[in-house]
Each structure stands twice: as C-alpha cells, then as structure tokens.
Write a sequence for this structure.
C-alpha cells in the first residue's frame, strides 16, 4: 500500500477517534442525567427518563443516523455536518444504554447509606453527590468500558453519510487496490488496537477510583478507637 493510501487510512483513524470522543462525552452526560432521573422522587421525572430510555434503546443506531442526517434537515430547515450528526445520533442512542448502568449502580448502593444521609439532614442533591455517586461510580466503570467498546464499533455506521471515518477510508483503499482481505485485516487490527487501549485506560481508572474508596474506608477505620475493657484494660 502506498504512502498516500496509508495517509488516507490515518485520516480515517483520526476522524473515528474524534467521533468516539465527542459521542462518548454526550453519551456520558445523557447516561448520568437520565440514569439519575430514573431514581428521582417525582414520578413524572421517572416516567420521562424511562420513556427516553425505552425509545432510544428500542431503535436502531443506523436508522437514528439516517433520521438525524436525512430527515431532520427538510423537517426543520437546517443541516448538520456529518461529524455532529453522527455524534448526536450515537451519543443519544448509547446514552440510553448507559443510563441503565447508572440507574443500576445507584440502586445497588446499600440503603443504609441513603438512610444515613437522611438522618444527617442532607438534601437529595447532597446525598447523591456525597454518598451515592462516590460509591456507585467505581462499579459503573466495567460496564461503561464495554459500552465504550460498543460505541467504538458503532462509529463505523457513520460511513453511510459519506463521512471519512476508518471504515469509509478502508473501503476507498479497497476499491483502489482491489484487495479486500489485506485491507480489511488492517482495519480490523486498527479497531482492535484502539479498543485494547481504551480497555487499559478504563481499567486504570477503575483501579484508581476503587483505591480512593478503599483508602477513605481504611482511614475512617484507623481513627475509630477500640473499646476499652474492664477497668480500662484492652
């Protein structure tokens, strides 16, 4: 493969990384907003959050990309560039899956922790910020890691818009060289390398967060005095 074709592939890698970054940011924001909304005390908030989750989980990401890129422009009179259309469609779709991760992790926190926050007269926001999220977030990392890998693979869907991502660039190189096996082997390896690096980063983040929770627990235990025996003898 010539240097010019390799440059085309590398440009596709860069577009894929950008799309992954922006759509992951949007999906993360949607995950926490909708996931926390699923646990809200007001039924209308829970209903709206649940409705959003069911709608976007029940629709195809491919169809959503078509809808955002081809249906919205004539309906509303404006056109999104492919990067932002792909970011919006993927972020909203995968954010619906992520919201269930957030909801499940929050629900798994020991109810006694919530009751302790109520006993301390914490507001719902204070309980969420100071008690629930610090314990729930480390447990979210492994499923979020899997979702991030799925999002990486989902970025290939934007090639239907003619966006020059890795999949689209690989197809152009295949057409130029008429070598399907070689080109798609390279593309598979590139996706694997990106996914492997993402997995390493997420595992490091998980260890860091869980270590922080463990250190806090150890410190709290260390300052607790042991009960004295009879006559003050331990």
């Amino acid at each position: 493969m010539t240097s010019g074709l390799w440059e085309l592939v590398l440009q596709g890698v860069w577009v894929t990384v950008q799309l992954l970054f922006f759509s992951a940011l949007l999906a993360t924001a949607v995950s926490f907003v909708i996931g926390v909304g699923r646990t809200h005390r007001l039924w209308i908030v829970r209903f709206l959050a649940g409705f959003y989750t069911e709608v976007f989980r029940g629709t195809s990401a491919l169809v959503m990309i078509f809808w955002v890129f081809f249906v919205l422009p004539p309906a509303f009179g404006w056109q999104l560039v492919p990067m932002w259309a792909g970011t919006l469609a993927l972020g909203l779709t995968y954010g619906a899956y992520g919201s269930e991760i957030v909801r499940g992790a929050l629900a798994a926190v020991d109810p006694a922790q919530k009751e302790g926050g109520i006993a301390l007269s914490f507001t719902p926001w204070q309980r969420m910020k100071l008690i629930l999220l610090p314990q729930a977030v480390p447990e979210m990392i492994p499923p979020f890691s899997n979702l991030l890998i799925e999002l990486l693979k989902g970025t290939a869907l934007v090639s239907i818009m003619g966006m020059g991502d890795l999949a689209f660039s690989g197809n152009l190189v295949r057409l130029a060289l008429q070598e399907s096996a070689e080109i798609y082997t390279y593309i598979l390896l590139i996706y694997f390398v990106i996914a492997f690096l993402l997995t390493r980063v997420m595992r490091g983040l998980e260890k860091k967060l869980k270590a922080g929770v463990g250190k806090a627990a150890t410190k709290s235990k260390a300052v607790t005095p042991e009960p004295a025996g009879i006559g003050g003898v331990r």
Remarks:
- Confidence is low (pLDDT under 50) at residues 215-234.
- The helical segments are 3-37, 43-57, 61-76, 82-107, 111-119, 124-154, 166-177, 180-222.
- DSSP finds eight helices and no strands in the chain.
- Residues 180-222 form the longest helix (43 residues).
